[in-house]
Design goal:
- This protein folds into two domains: about 1-75, no CATH class; about 75-350, TIM Barrel (Alpha-Beta Barrel), CATH 3.20.20.70.
- The protein contains nine helices and 16 strands.
- The protein has helices at about 115-120, 140-155, 175-180, 195-200, 205-220, 240-250, 265-270, 270-275, 285-295; strands at about 5, 15-20, 30-35, 40-45, 50-55, 65-70, 75-80, 85-90, 130, 160, 185-190, 225-230, 255-260, 300, 325, 345.
- It is globular, with a radius of gyration of 21 Å.
- The structure holds iron/sulfur cluster (SF4).
- Iron/sulfur cluster binds near residues 329, 331 and 337.
């Protein structure tokens, strides 16, 4: 697992600040140049002060963007220049309590959108940044300000916004257009083909109805949508009906991502009655995939280790688990699929997981 927090010595700042670490050239007032390294740290010049970052001196930090918070002896590694998996967690508040939530909500919110805007402008060329929560659109005005500003400052970067889709309004169409329709991929979950089940999974009455209306807004906006459905015991029997719903009501989506459960947060708490072992029973999933693909819906499987998927569907299962929270098991060692397999979440527990793993 890659640690996204780096231990640092105290720095004299009085508000959350963004700094980009550079080992060679300095291009911005936010850049801190490497001045020294020893066996346990790398030391950067931060506007005349020393920023000491504890890590293996061989760790390549060039281009990494850190968030420094006053009084904290650790820095958030917001952007890793060498990674495709960079996420800004913009809030931990949420209006839903989904049974599989990997980041259970918290009551309080600290607005760091100004810092995120600076960080985005310092991102590596052509970066794609995931915006996650909590529910980012609970702070929609600030989120859209951030997206507009970042899009203007950096025409090369794009965003993947993970949202429950509850807070779009018809008036957002113009803003989505201003940000750039192809600049943002909206990742939005749908867990069932009808209100009773979807609302019970997300623990919010009326959520399905609101989502249905807001899909219409997104369609009118020409927004790029990645529809996300986590496979659960709760929705296993209706997966083919979800495929039917997607193909008849939401044919404008870019991709339907069918996802395996992550064993953390509420997902861990509810694992025993929510995890569906698709390595032993692929039946309803097979029907749903066949129906969706047959009707022209681009369908993918996220977070499925390749050997849990029948061979004829493995091309639909890209490696999707972020590099910092990804692992492989001992039995994966000699597997011929290892280079294309996404493996497991760091917190995957083999004794509660897939019963049908088999080295290929
Ligand atoms: S054995 Fe491991 S590397 Fe091979 S397909 Fe299964 S999970 Fe992936």
């Amino acid at each position: 697992m890659i640690d996204l927090r780096l231990k640092i010595d105290d720095v004299p700042i009085d508000h959350p600040s963004i700094v980009r670490l550079r080992t060679d050239t300095v291009e911005s007032e936010h850049d801190a140049a490497l001045i020294d390294r020893d066996h346990e740290s790398q030391i950067f010049d931060l506007a005349g002060y020393s920023l000491r970052v504890y890590c293996d001196p061989r760790t390549d930090l060039d281009g990494d963007v850190l968030l420094l918070v006053p009084g904290r002896n650790s820095a958030h590694r917001l952007l890793r220049a060498g990674s495709r998996h960079n996420t800004f967690l913009v809030t931990e508040q949420c209006d839903q309590l989904c049974v599989m939530c990997s980041q259970p909500p918290k009551k309080y919110h600290v607005d760091l959108f100004d810092q995120f805007t600076v960080a985005a402008t310092l991102a590596p060329e052509n970066a794609r940044i995931t915006i996650s929560g909590g529910e980012p659109l609970l702070h929609k005005r600030r989120l859209f300000q951030f997206l507009v500003a970042a899009a203007k400052a950096r025409p090369d970067i794009s965003f993947h916004v993970l949202t429950n889709g509850q807070f779009f309004e018809p008036g957002d169409v113009a803003l989505i257009d201003e940000i750039g329709r192809d600049r943002v991929l909206w990742g939005i979950p749908l867990y069932a083909p009808h209100a009773a089940l979807h609302d019970s999974i997300v623990a919010k009455p009326g959520a399905f109805e609101t989502l249905s209306q807001n899909f219409t807004t997104l369609m009118r906006a020409g927004a790029a949508v990645e529809l996300r459905t986590v496979v659960l015991h709760q929705n296993w029997d209706v997966l083919p009906q979800i495929a039917d719903y997607v193909s008849t009501r939401l044919p404008f989506i870019d991709v339907w991502a069918i996802m395996q459960l992550e064993n953390i947060g509420y997902g861990r708490m509810n694992w025993a009655h929510s995890f569906k072992d698709t390595s032993l029973d692929f039946g309803k999933l097979r029907s749903a995939i066949n129906l969706a693909i047959g009707r022209g819906i681009h369908t993918l499987l996220y977070n499925f280790p390749l050997c849990t998927v029948p061979p004829q569907y493995r091309h639909l299962a890209p490696s999707t688990i972020s590099d910092w929270k990804n692992k492989f098991l001992e039995e994966c060692g000699e597997c011929t699929l290892r280079s294309t397999c996404g493996g497991f979440f760091e917190w995957y527990k083999a004794d509660q997981g897939f019963g049908g793993l088999s080295r290929q």
